[in-house]
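Duplicate of #3305? Posting structure anyway:
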């Protein structure tokens, strides 16, 4: 059973940067397309960015040009570099598989708070 552990969140002023990391146990991780998701208070969880095992990426429109997703299959990690952060980026960020129904169990996520 793959376990996901997200880290790197924090409190940052608008315009600042954070780098999130997701560590996954289990070698199956390397063949899965992975995504970063976020959930703001009172809102549904949404996809922020995704990366295939071939390193193709996609982003939701609101983060294009500001966020960069990457992966290191040898280390079983997926990262999200977030620049030019905005208050509307405030949310709990999670990683998980992308594009399939059989997701891994969700981790606890990492809180990102952007102050104006």
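Output from current build:
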């Amino acid at each position: 059973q793959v376990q996901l552990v997200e880290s790197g969140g924090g409190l940052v002023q608008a315009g600042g940067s954070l780098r999130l990391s997701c560590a996954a146990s289990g070698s199956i991780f390397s063949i899965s397309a992975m995504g970063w998701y976020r959930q703001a208070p009172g809102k549904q969880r949404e996809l922020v960015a995704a990366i295939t095992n071939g390193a193709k990426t996609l982003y939701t429109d609101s983060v294009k040009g500001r966020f960069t997703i990457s992966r290191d299959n040898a280390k079983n990690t997926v990262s999200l570099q977030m620049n030019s952060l905005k208050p509307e980026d405030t949310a709990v960020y999670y990683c998980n598989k992308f594009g399939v129904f059989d997701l891994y169990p969700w981790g606890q996520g990492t809180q990102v708070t952007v102050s104006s």
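Confirmed duplicate; merging threads. Residues 84 and 116 are 12 Å apart (CA to CA). The first strand starts at residue 4 and ends at 7.
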